[in-house]
């Protein structure tokens, strides 16, 4: 299922990840372990703004079925069931939360060598239908997505995008927010492991006559340490340091500050992820 153009959500994903992934403003620790039967258990604790929360998750895979269950400190249970290849070249995802019985959702993804199709339906009193499709190859893709609300007969969203992928670079243009926003991004990898890269993103909001330009990058100091930074034209500067303390276990230090308001206290974040 990986020989085709990928899902619509994959367009521009590498640039988004470099500019947003691992940038945090709270304290978070997660510990993962795997039992002899193949069950993965992850416990996470988060402290944000003086408030603490946490959850315990369990992931179990049996043949082509993946079960992911999470229980948080408020006794809410989130369950995701993923079925692969029930029908050839398809993936079916069912998710719901308890005790919120209106949170159910079913998504079906179909993968072809030159196209993908994904459809999701929410299971509540006023269901919405999301549909996305892409056409192309792993190197070039054009796609669109739309959301429809049958009860009101209106489109809740529509988005279109184009992506160009090369071994050392990725470029994309996405027209979203019902045509009100256009976003263009480009990322260029500077090493074979793709740990050192530079990225640029520009967003135009037509209704506000506003442009936002962001540049960023990542640099592999060595095989265990990576630094990332980003800056936009509004003066928001973010930086992080990530180090692999032991195999598969990472500690991440992150900060963000407004260079146009240096009197404001910068935001700091700390994340520790321990895996066996």
Automatic annotation (TrEMBL):
CDD domains: Porin3_VDAC. It is found in: Membrane. GO terms for molecular function: porin activity; voltage-gated monoatomic anion channel activity. GO terms for cellular component: mitochondrial outer membrane; pore complex. Pfam families: Porin_3 (PF01459). Keywords: Ion transport, Membrane, Porin, Transmembrane, Transmembrane beta strand, Transport. Gene3D superfamilies: Porin (2.40.160.10). Its main location: membrane. The keyword Hydrolase does not apply. Forms a channel through the cell membrane that allows diffusion of small hydrophilic molecules. The channel adopts an open conformation at low or zero membrane potential and a closed conformation at potentials above 30-40 mV. The open state has a weak anion selectivity whereas the closed state is cation-selective. Belongs to the eukaryotic mitochondrial porin (TC 1.B.8.1) family. This is Voltage-dependent anion-selective channel protein. It comes from Lactuca sativa (Garden lettuce).
